[in-house]
Amino acid sequence: MTSATQKALRILSALLIAGxxxxxxxxxxxxxxxxxxxxxxxxxxxxxxxxxxxxYQHGNSTLTVYLPDSNKAYxxxxxxxxxxxxxxxxxxxxxxxxxxxxxVNGSQKIEVISLTTYKSVGTIVxxxxxxxxxxxxxxxxxxxxxxxxxxxxxxxNPSTLQxxxxxxxxxxxxxxxxxxxxxxxxxxxxxxxxxxxxxxxxTTGGLIKTVIVGDSPSEIGVTTNNEVIVKxxxxxxxxxxxxxxxxxxxxxxxxxxxxxxxxxxxxxxxGHPGRMTVSSKGVGYFQAQNGVIKFAYTGSIISVGGTxxxxxxxxxxxxxxxxxxxxxxxxxxxxxxxxxxxINTNGATVxxxxxxxxxxxxxxxx
Amino acid sequence: MxxxxxxxxxxxxxxxxxxxxxxxxxxxxxxxxxxxxLENALEGVPGLFLKSYGGPGAVxxxxxxxxxxxxxxxxxxxxxxxxxxxGQVDLGIFLLQNVDRVEVLRGGFSSMYGADAVGGIVNIIxxxxxxxxxxxxxxxxxxxxMSGFQLGTDFTLFGVGMQVAAKREAGRGDYEFDFNDxxxxxxxxxxxxxxALRQVQMVAGAPLSPSLSLRVSSMYDWSERGSPxxxxxxxxxxLGRLVDRGFLNQATVEWTATPSLFAxxxxxxxxxxxxxxxxxxxxxxxxxxxxxxxxxxxFTPHMRYVLDPSTSLNVGAEYSSSSVSSTAVLNATRDxxxxxxxxxxxxxxxxxxxxxxxxxxxxxxxxxxDFSGTVNPKLGVNLGIWRTAGLRLKASYGKSFRAPTFxxxxxxxxxxxxxxxxxxxxFDAGMLIAPALAxxxxxxxxxxxxxxxxxxxxxxxxxxxxxxxxxxxVRSDGFELIGGWRLFDDRLVLRxxxxxxxxxxxxxxxxxxxxxxxxxxxxxxxxxxxxxIATVGRFRLGVHHTFTGFRFATxxxxxxxxxxxxxxxxxxxxxxxxEEPFSADLRFEVTNLFDSKYELLPNYPMPLRxxxxxxxxxx
Lengths: 366, 619
Prior knowledge:
Shape of chain A: elongated
Distance between the termini of chain A: 86 Å
Structural class of chain B: mainly beta
Distance between the termini of chain B: 31 Å
Shape of chain B: globular
Largest sheet of chain A: 4 strands, antiparallel
Oligomer: heterodimer
Structural class of chain A: mainly beta
Mean pLDDT of chain A: 92
Number of helices of chain B: 4
Strand content of chain B: over 45%
Radius of gyration of chain A: 25 Å
């Protein structure tokens, strides 16, 4: 190689390296950061609210609003209306007095939004980690929420959004909560290691009774006759499945807090039952391993269907008394937007719309 | 470009003649980086992306060429180090001391090392005792309560060369970070992120005869640290604690049977224990602690026979037995046996343009007691084109695989014993320009394409029970541009690289699959790095600048949930205070010089600017 060639190579190399240095320090990649899509919030006085859990600790929980009249689903309504994300793992939603109360479990908070503008009207941020889970609103001044990781519930004022009494101890890992006859009923799931319902005086917060129902009570509903229906998952033993115990449905008399009816759900038929909803028509529905199971409750009799009411194997479930339609969510693979199926009283799917990642809790605005 | 590499064939080969792309971090390079762990050392290596859950001591894993942490095989002195439970190595607690070099080879290497060498391999090669008496000490302190020391000595005892070394680093780790959840914006401090890392090493080496030598090493490490969790709210905080213990023992007999026949007989015993305690864990059976114990014993005899100056034959076998006992994983044992054979041919061509061709065929068979066996061949070629310019073309094509881990197979609540190994086909091709002239820059460009089938993915069933399945097919392709320039007798060393990854799921796993053809979450499309080490008299300055492109946080590549791109610059400055009779250096490190705010995983903020001051003495 001649010296001229060497010199040319050196100069070329120097230019390359110098260019590399400058480029690296001043450069921000060939691809710019993506930005979120724009969209619109619905304009309507009625609708179906679906809280999508999102992925745990990713902070990507969202709110879908479905308008039955136009058969259109609006995605990520909370973020569009408020300019910020809903938070991490939305678990519950309750519509009350012109507002929606959304429990955001991982974010340790309740977001309260207007039902007309979807804008936030307040936020209750709970101190520390307790994982708020399900809530019940009894009246304008009294509401309770379960803290699943803290084995406690918290009383708050749904109008002022102030915490009234924090961390009232109940049983292990409380999940479902309901109010009836001036009392609060809390399902102590213990994730299989508790089997009780705590009954508290709604006014004083004092313990009235601890009612034994079945292994891992998780879901609760109140009938039009002021009876409390509790669904238990049964205990799961993944190492020794032979030790699994079956789920059950119990009815508690809200006058004396006694279980006056109970039906066991055989594992072979139903597996460990999932979420439950109770209608005002004397029937309820729960998720099972082979689809949605319908059950009827009359007096002391609970009759559970042996074959699925619908073969959709879903996750969230809610019955809309106003339209007599059942809403069932299917999270697909839990990493992409799931579906919501609308089922009529005959068990036929009449409509379907897409939600967000892991659609779960549902509420209705009429 | 390093002069030689030992990891590609288990024997020393000329690095320029390799069919694969390699980066070697020498002891000098390691001194030029901030921090003290393997994570710190690997930052900026081309084709390699690090995922960390926080600052020093936090869990940290690596991804090579867009693959997962369980697709990178980490070796210590050529012996497998990956944890058999999850197939990974926590780089954040791997203290580096007495390391001679770290070799990073990109591409599939199952034809040589068996399972998990899909994206590439990282081989940590420790320093051999040379019998020369030596005492080393290091004392350091820094931001957020960081303090550390290192003591080491070399000596000879009854004719046996010995090394004894101990290192400790600890800190509160309560670094500041910005928090904004849309409701409130504030500066917070990381909680429960303290850490204490300890490591003790002993190495002994001695000739047994003129043709036989023995080397025995033990490394015991113990770490305790907080597991602060994701920052979701200003007050959210995990109280989980992690305690890890590892005990690695290696004994190797090297035998030079004849001038053309060499053999090694390495025996390894490795045991690890991890305890995770979380007082807030919602477990109610009276025990919320998770304990994982695993142990592996392996014997890997291998030999090299030099047939003639241009051809060598490498033959070896590996037997290992691993077992696990845990509160979360079923007790299980795995026996593995493998045989491998490879050769390297150097053919000098009577042509001034194409002057040399190197061919590297290799094949390995592995049998496992708990899942099906696998055969993995590979062919690599390196062609010398223009000797003066040091221009070489290289390519390789082969199969690799990842073994299902003990977690995958035997996790108590969802493990799937029916899993089969992931299989991959990898192709890479590249060009190297490494002029023989001093002061000339070296340039390398590589293209790679790794296609993985039956990738193991944990997903929930309809009852919400998570379990692993052979679900995904993934294609990861991209390219690397690598440059290096040594000037003024190595007093100025510049290195730069750009790596591009396109890592996508290429099969549908559900109807109307919205994750199809989407970039895998947390894998950037591009990373780049530039480092400069300058030595002037007693002074030495190192600057390392990295760029990491944005990463999607969801499988659907939702643009609303993206980890933004960021740059990070580290710098260190050292001065030699004394040369004789002992050397003393004062070293000042600044990490994240320009206060970049970034996350490598969602809601796990990384530290802002931090400082460290160290004194190093060598007698």
